[in-house]
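Technical annex, item 7. During the second reporting period the consortium partners agreed on a shared format for inverse folding records so that results from different sites could be compared directly. Each record opens with the tokenized structure and is followed by the designed sequence. A conforming record, contributed by the partner at site C, is shown below for reference.
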């Protein structure tokens, strides 16, 4: 974790140096920024567990700068640093308080719009937007042996429905816990990457890929893929997956320590398929010259990611 936060600091500094961001009006004054923002920067400063988190925002990435020493909001007390952003609002599961929150970052402050009691899962392992107003989150119950889902109405944080996902493959010998990866939604189906682990977080030499009916949240099909082990990060902390034009789901496999290989692969599944695309794989570790790879990945359009 220490190395992760060191990398986070370097990334933040790089963003502050490279990105040109217009400084907000009323620079340096409390609650004097703009009402609405397009771009948000979440900063983690320090080394785990002694970290402080800040949020700031801008509407222009072409000029100026963001300076977290003079603008922005310290957010440790308001939420975790695991945020879901959609249409100008920010959603967060404050696990230590048992509260699901909806925020708006306005006038250089993170303000609470709505919060509701929520403890149905231990944390958000993965999430997906069904549409602009429907958010699905999944996670385990804390024991690692049951996978639950909740469908939220994002407007008022009311729960549309929730329950346990049924139909996963049984635990293999010596692996008694689930390890959830990334998921997406395409044309009425949830596509979810998952794996198994033991008490030491060791995983088998494969991962699993499930197709789930969105209406029932029952697994329609689940297959094993032995091209890699481990799973992608589908949580709000940092996502290593993306969906291209609602037609293809791209996701990574990060093998855990002791897996026999550290190579990280990018795979995909096409809409309507019941298994990953066996003809598509990219070794991301080789792509970057075998350097250590911790990354956020996303699709920026025109077949570029």
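Designed sequence (site C submission):
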């Amino acid at each position: 974790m220490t190395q992760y936060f060191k990398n986070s600091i370097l990334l933040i500094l790089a963003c502050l140096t490279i990105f040109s961001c217009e400084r907000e009006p009323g620079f340096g004054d409390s609650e004097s920024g703009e009402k609405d923002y397009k771009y948000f920067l979440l900063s983690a400063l320090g080394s785990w567990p002694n970290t402080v988190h800040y949020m700031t925002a801008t509407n222009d990435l072409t000029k100026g700068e963001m300076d977290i020493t003079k603008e922005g909001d310290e957010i440790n007390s308001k939420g975790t640093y695991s945020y879901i952003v959609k249409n100008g609002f920010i959603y967060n599961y404050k696990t230590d308080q048992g509260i699901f929150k909806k925020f708006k970052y306005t006038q250089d402050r993170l303000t609470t719009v709505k919060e509701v009691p929520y403890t149905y899962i231990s944390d958000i392992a993965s999430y997906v937007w069904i549409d602009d107003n429907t958010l699905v989150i999944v996670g385990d119950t804390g024991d690692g042996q049951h996978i639950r889902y909740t469908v939220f109405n994002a407007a008022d944080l009311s729960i549309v429905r929730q329950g346990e996902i049924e139909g996963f493959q049984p635990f293999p010998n010596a692996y008694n816990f689930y390890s959830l990866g990334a998921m997406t939604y395409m044309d009425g189906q949830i596509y979810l990457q998952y794996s198994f682990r033991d008490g030491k977080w060791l995983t088998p030499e494969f991962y699993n890929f499930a197709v789930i009916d969105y209406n029932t949240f029952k697994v329609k099909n689940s297959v094993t893929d032995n091209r890699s082990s481990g799973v992608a990060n589908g949580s709000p902390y940092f996502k290593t997956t993306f969906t291209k034009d609602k037609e293809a789901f791209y996701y990574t496999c990060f093998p855990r320590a002791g897996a026999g290989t550290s190579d990280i692969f990018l795979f995909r599944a096409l809409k309507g398929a019941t298994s990953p695309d066996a003809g598509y794989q990219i070794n991301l570790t080789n792509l970057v010259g075998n350097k250590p790879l911790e990354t956020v990945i996303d699709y920026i359009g025109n077949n570029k990611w």
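The radius of gyration is 20 Å. Helices lie at 2-18, 284-287. All partners now use this format for quarterly exchanges.
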